[in-house]
Amino acid sequence: MMQYFDKHGNEIKAGMFLRMEDGSIEEIYACTDSYGKEDLGINASNDEFLKQHGLGEFDREFYPLSSFSLRETELCQSEPTQGYSGMEMK
Description:
The chain is mainly beta.
């Protein structure tokens, strides 16, 4: 499996959250690349579409991390929540 690192040199693993260059927070998933090799990726599926069509995690699609420049990304604790003072971390 490919190894990926954030801008601080921390290894990125499945189940972690990554703050992308645009500020969005993405969960990291274990997935396979187009050759069937183990890889890491972020969600490429529309959750509402999956729910409406009775589809589950098996049907989820991913964008591989290799498709992104990770130079400005960083690991974070979890998804942001909106607090009274703006964006806060859980």
